[in-house]
Amino acid sequence: MDAGSPSLAGAAPIAPRPAREVRVWDAEADVVVAGYGCAGASAAIAAREKDASVLVLERASAGGGASAMAGGEIYLGGGTAIQKACGFDDTPEAMRAYLLAATGPGPNEAKIDVYCEQSVDHFDWLVRCGVVFKPTFYPTPCWEPPTDDGLVYTGGENAWPFNEIAEPAPRGHVPQMQNKRPGDRSAGWMLMQSLSHMAEASGAKVMADSRVSQLVVDDAGEVVGLIAREFGEERAVRARQGVVLATGGFAANPEMVALYAPRIAGQMPLGTDGDDGSSLRLGQGVGAAAAHLDAAQTALPSNPPLVYPSILVNDFGQRFINEDTYCGRIGQASIFQQQARCSIVLDESIFESVPEVDRWGARPTWVCETVAELEAEMGLPDGSLQATVELYNRHAQHGEDPVFHKRTEFLRPLKSPYGGIRLTGLPYAVFTLGGMVTTVNGEVVGPGGEPIPGLFAAGRATSGIPSWGYASGTSLGDGTFFGRRAGWAAAGR
Questions:
Q1: In whole angstroms, what separates CA 483 from the centre of its chain?
Q2: What is the DSSP letter of 276?
Q3: What is the layout of strands, in order, in the sheet containing 268-269?
Q4: How far is CA 410 from CA 248, 324, 366, 385, 414, in A?
Q5: For residue 299, which of 142, 407, 192 has the smallest C-alpha distance?
Q6: Closest alpha carbon to 69 in 167, 136, 144, 132
Q7: Is there a contact between 137 and 85 (Cβ–Cβ < 8 Å)?
Q8: What sections of 418-458 are H helices per DSSP?
Q9: Among 78, 335, 400, 423, which is least packed, fewest CB within 10 Å?
């Protein structure tokens, strides 16, 4: 390593402790869960459904984690009660076709298959856990609905190319919540209220302020417990049947980001300090395979109502995606394809049509009477933006977009005065998508595909439904669905 290179000690696998070195077990349960977000809570509930005793360890003083900070959308479909109540027909086949196209490259077909086949059942399970969904649809493009409506589009299903691949249907199921404060306290908090209440009412025990530091393995290589630190004191916890790792991704670990996902280095991590990759490092210490560690969700630093009717251009004055798709997909395209360098080009009527509260404080960086002047002010190659706007306007006046197939409802020619909003240099909210490789039952596997005895994982600690591409709700959906399956499997050993 060069003298000036950063240390990557915080990204190294964490070696397990041999069980023969544990003199006293301070606590034990059939199933021990590390992490109390949506995946850990779901695992705890499911294990209790199998009559296993459950102990949940949470490093913070209370549960919730990144799940409680989320907008609350849960990606479900195939014909849920809410979809039907809102007048949308959906099938597992259409849901599968969309997810296969939207979550790649390298989608996990086995997980997608079971997720789509059992999505309606999972919706019903969440309802039984006390999660309430209002049977109303929120039609306006958004990051998360500011209302208590229960259904919304969250992945560009009704935008090109996905509207040509599968019949569009909204699949963002949002727990009902009064007095929501988007960006402060959203429906993810409501989801965790219901799940944590159900977990504890079912008999699961919770040890807060307990940070897991090592796994414990016996001489045969089976995971039989873990070591945690509670207020500076070490605790050995025995798992009679299995350990479930569910402590989130690694966006808050700069060393892991630098090693595995350098394209998002320096951006704004979305989540908590607990998203430090500890589950992945613990798993790697006992031989866990990992996948898609360079994948990340990246939120474009703008609001859909401002983006959809405008055009987005890169540093060459060219469009690079249809602006009416899911803004998380635009954020990915910006960071991974355009080095996070892009600008919104719009006109005065578009800007004034968006309520000030929905502009998120955005103001035009440049305002010009002609596209040529705007091009020069933005420092774009001579003629580049002029050619882009001329082509866009020529087709938009006929309600067409032959380049990126933007929907007619968001198409109209741009007119003077023109404006540009510079997004380059603004922070993108990011979180990681890659993690441990697991089976559809949450078993952590090694490089050869063999399960590691006694070890299970779920949520952003794993490579799940969003292998690479993302739709809002696939984290909470994936976490609750496969957390549930991991809890069942651990309890059934």
A1: 15
A2: S
A3: 268-269, 429-432, 296-299
A4: 37, 7, 22, 20, 11
A5: 142
A6: 144
A7: no
A8: none
A9: 400
Tokens of 26: 């301070």
**Does residue 159 contact residue 322 with C-beta atoms inside 8 Å?**
yes
Query: What's the rounded Cα separation, in Å, for the pair 367 and 348?
Result: 9
Phi first, then psi: what are they for 287, rounded to 5°? 95, 20
Instruction: Spell out the residues 6+ positions from residue 107 whose beta carbon is closer than 8 angstroms to its own.
Output: 99, 100, 467, 468, 469
Amino acid at 12: A
Structure tokens at 183: 């960006």
Strand, helix or coil for residue 39: helix
Q: 435-436 and 290-291: which strand pairing?
A: antiparallel
Say how far apart CA 186 and CA 386 lie, in whole Å: 42
- pLDDT for 77 beyond 90: yes
Q: How far apart (Å, rounded) are the C-alpha atoms in residues 436 and 472?
A: 21
State how beta strands 343-347 and 311-313 pair: antiparallel
Query: Do 246 and 483 touch, CB atoms closer than 8 A?
Result: yes
pLDDT at 345: 98
Which residue in 205, 141, 130, 144 sits closest to 173, CA to CA? 144
What residue has token string 């007619």?
408
Q: Please, which pLDDT band fits residue 1 given cuts at 50, 70 and 90?
A: very low
How far apart are alpha carbons 50 and 135 in whole angstroms?
31
3-state secondary structure of 273: coil
Each residue's pLDDT tens digit, 159-182: 999 999 999 999 999 999 988 887
Cβ–Cβ < 8 Å for 147, 170:
no
Residue 4: pLDDT band (50, 70, 90) is very low
**What are residue 237's DSSP bridge partners?**
27, 226
Q: Report the C-alpha gap between 179 and 208 in whole angstroms.
A: 28
Q: Which two tokens stand for residue 84?
A: 């039907």
Whether this prediction's pTM lies above 0.85 is answered by: yes
pLDDT more than 90, % of the chain = 96
Q: Tell me the residue length of the chain.
A: 493
Task: Return the closest-CA partner of residue 312 out of 325, 322, 326, 303.
Answer: 322
Q: Average model confidence (pLDDT) for the chain?
A: 96
**Locus of tokens 């569910």:** 246
